[in-house]
Design goal:
It is a single chain. The protein contains 17 helices and 12 strands. By secondary structure, it is of the alpha/beta class. Helix 2 links the parallel strand 2 and strand 3. The longest helix is centred in the middle third of the chain and has 24 residues. It is elongated. The relative contact order is 0.13.
Length: 404
């Protein structure tokens, strides 16, 4: 492996999103991330979205750049192999991440007997040990009660899983922080990261809890409007939609230039007594702003609106589907972040590498996800030092799986 984290080895036992995405983040920076699964496949090996013949595009997306070893997780010999792999020697080794129940043979107390400076990250549902996923965590945060159109009754779930995503990157950061601590002190440690606490932490940081307590109010639904400033979707003459936002003085001036709104904006300020260069002013006068902007957008095609906004330097973006995104030249086709890969069993499609750009280290192109057990033999040989005849015997006894 090459990249800024070359020399770091992480063993991952994972499912769903947070743990595998965190591991993939490290793999795309050059770490050797070894994912282990049962011989029959992991919990999410067939999770949707899938191809027409049932291959998981989801699984391939979250496991790019990793190596795969498949083992009979119920067989004591298989567990011993994985214990040895997790606790294998080496300065950059001895790091384990999982969202499986970290008990029994996977407990930190047991694994650290094999390597005292072991670093183990355990992503859990809630701090009390109860099971949770992004969707159940999101339900308690309050966000589903402010998401959705004005006047809607009942919760509206998020389509993207925000708390899984936040937990994935926090987990990757925690591993790097613990690895730095180990290099400085020689100490290993167990890290516990509750998905629920991650969500509560972000909810607090963004001021939602403070607003509810200090102002003694529950925020109502505002639909697609951006709370506390100006931003909303607008429909063009050809039935497309664009998002137009204002977050700064410059955005006000740029939008005014794009649509010729300077005089109209001054009229709004005079009539309402607000300053459109402030967030509060824009939020207070949002209806008046929409009354000016909406007919302009509705009279033009999406291309014409986009050309005018882009030329003026306004803050905007077109709404598009996933299929439209795949053909977007700026976002995907001409973006060095993406490489078209031929993923075995799935096909050719654009795959993103790491979004991080380091000045002193070249960005590594993305590597596709492994097939189940693809690297079993090279891991058993190259890391655990097992001879060929022993590896063959483990295959014969169905302790391990994958191509020979």
């Amino acid at each position: 492996m090459t990249g800024i984290l070359a020399g770091l080895r992480i063993v991952e036992g994972s499912a769903f999103i947070a743990a595998p995405l965190g591991g993939m983040t490290l793999a795309q920076l050059g770490a050797d991330v070894i994912r282990f699964d049962d011989i029959k496949g992991g919990l999410d090996s067939d999770r949707w979205p899938i191809t027409k013949d049932g291959r998981s595009i989801y699984w391939a997306g979250l496991n790019k750049g990793k190596r795969s070893i498949s083992v009979d997780l119920r067989n004591p010999k298989g567990r011993d192999l994985l214990t040895a792999l997790i606790a294998s020697p080496g300065e950059g080794a001895g790091i384990f991440t999982t969202n499986m129940p970290a008990r029994g043979w996977l407990a930190y107390e047991e694994l650290s007997k094999k390597r005292a400076d072991l670093i183990a990250l355990n992503i859990v549902g809630a701090r009390d040990g109860s099971a949770h996923v992004d969707y159940t965590v999101n339900a308690i945060t309050g966000f589903p009660m402010v998401t959705g159109p004005v006047g809607h009754e009942g919760p509206v779930n998020a389509v993207a899983p925000p708390w899984d995503l936040a937990t994935a990157y926090a987990g990757a950061m925690a591993i790097l922080a613990a690895e730095r601590h180990r290099r400085m002190t020689g100490q290993g440690q167990r890290i516990v990261l509750p998905l629920q606490d991650m969500a509560l932490s972000v909810t607090s940081a963004l001021g939602y809890l403070g607003e509810a307590v200090v102002n003694e109010t529950d925020r109502p639904r505002y639909g697609n409007e951006i709370f506390g400033t100006f931003g909303r979707d607008f429909r063009t003459s050809d039935g497309r939609f664009v998002m137009i936002c204002i977050f700064s003085d410059r955005h006000v001036d740029a939008l005014a230039a794009a649509g010729g709104f300077a005089a109209a904006f001054k009229k709004i300020e005079a009539a309402t007594g607000v300053d459109l260069k402030t967030d509060a002013g824009r939020w207070t006068a949002r209806a008046e702003l929409c009354a000016v902007i909406e007919p302009w957008v509705a009279s033009l095609s999406a291309d014409a609106v986009g050309t005018a906004l882009k030329k003026a330097g306004a803050l905007w973006a077109p709404y598009q589907t996933f299929r439209e995104l795949a053909t977007d030249k700026d976002a995907v086709q001409d973006n060095p972040l993406f490489t078209v890969l031929d993923q075995p069993g799935i096909g050719r499609y654009p795959v993103a590498g790491s979004p991080l750009q380091f000045g002193a280290v070249a960005r590594q192109p993305p590597v596709g996800a492994p097939t189940l057990g693809q690297h079993t033999d090279e891991i058993l040989s190259g890391i655990l030092g097992l001879p060929d005849h022993e590896i063959a015997r483990l295959h014969d006894e169905k302790v391990v799986g994958g191509p020979r």
